[in-house]
Amino acid sequence: MAVERGLVEAFCHAIGRSETDHVPPTFAVVADRFDPDFPRRPAPGAGWPDGPPETMLHVEQWFDLGEPLAVGDELTVRRGLGRTWEKQGRSGRLTFLEERTELVDRAGAVRVATGWVDVRTEADHRDLTTAQRAAEARDPVPARPDEVVVVDPVTPTHLVRYVGAAGDLHPLHHDRAMAQALGYPDIVAPGMLTMALTAEALLARAGAGRGGPVRLVRLASRFRAQVWPGDALLVAVSDDGDRILSARTRNQFDEVVLETTAVTA
Fold it and tell me: What CA–CA distance (Å, rounded) separates 87 from 83?
């Protein structure tokens, strides 16, 4: 994996960052673009003749961040299965699957380790997403004094710019006709877009509170609800002391969509 300037700039622009000299903390997901067997990317020049890859719910993501990545770095990507566990939920049995990725530099140092946790449910995903959309039929709640509006509204363009930069071309993130044909109410924003936007708000708050840029050594999020075109995203950041920050991201209906914890250097 090469940390190319153009790719860094595309990723920064997709998450609303104008300053492109520093690599964002969630940039490691771009490793997907270099994986020849990545399942959420169709073959060159082809679509999805057999339908999209299996769709599971992305419920957690974490990053352990070593020395910051820089333009020009050449990294080896190590990827494999992490933990697997099960539990019983209200909708039936839940099977959790973690995929672990490490970006290793030429000296053998792990610069970034990240884990992507999916859950396979007994209940149909379409039932869960449709139920969430029905529950959102209520009055919007305006931004509170401790919140920053990171995007309002989310548009399909936001999604396309992000998946183009990150390389996650699952059709549910950009192909409305296919999403609706499969029974979903609309295309859905990648959870990693929401996490990246939240991380930017968190870094801005941390930098303002500490008189300058800060560096993260740990970033972890739990995805609580889907984000759809038309949604607003509002982030409240709190300093919990001992180098720990937390953030809560909600939509305009006051539904929490993401919970994030970060540890600064």
Answer: 13
- Which class is 5-39+53-264 in CATH? alpha beta
All residues at 6 or more sequence positions from 252 whose CB lies less than 8 Å from its CB, including other chains: 140, 141, 152, 231, 232, 234
Task: List the beta strands (DSSP E) in the chain.
Answer: 57-65, 76-89, 92-104, 110-121, 147-151, 216-223, 233-241, 244-250, 256-264
Greater model confidence, 173 or 212: 173
Q: How many C-beta atoms surround the C-beta of residue 167 within 10 A?
A: 19
Structural contact between residues 133 and 69, judged by C-beta atoms closer than 8 angstroms: no
- Whether pTM exceeds 0.85: yes
Q: Name every residue whose Cβ is closer than 8 Å to that of residue 134 and which is 6 or more positions away in sequence.
A: none
Name every residue whose Cβ is closer than 8 Å to that of residue 114 and which is 6 or more positions away in sequence: 28, 29, 61, 62, 63, 64, 100, 101, 102
**Backbone torsion region of residue 212, taken as left when φ is above 0, otherwise alpha when ψ lies between -120 and 50, otherwise beta:** left
The rounded distance, in Å, linking the Cα atoms of 215 and 174 is 32
Per-residue pLDDT reduced to its tens digit, 145-203 = 999 999 999 999 999 999 999 999 999 999 999 888 888 889 999 999 999 999 999 99
Burial class (CB in 10 A: 0-12, 13-18, 19+), 107: exposed
How many Å apart are CA 189 and CA 33, to the nearest integer? Answer: 18
Residues 18-61 have pLDDT tens digits of: 989 999 999 999 999 999 989 999 888 888 888 788 888 999 99
pLDDT at 128 over 70: no
Using CB atoms within 10 Å of the CB of residue 125, give its burial: 0 to 12 exposed, 13 to 18 middle, 19+ buried: middle
What is the rounded average pLDDT of the residues 137-150?
91
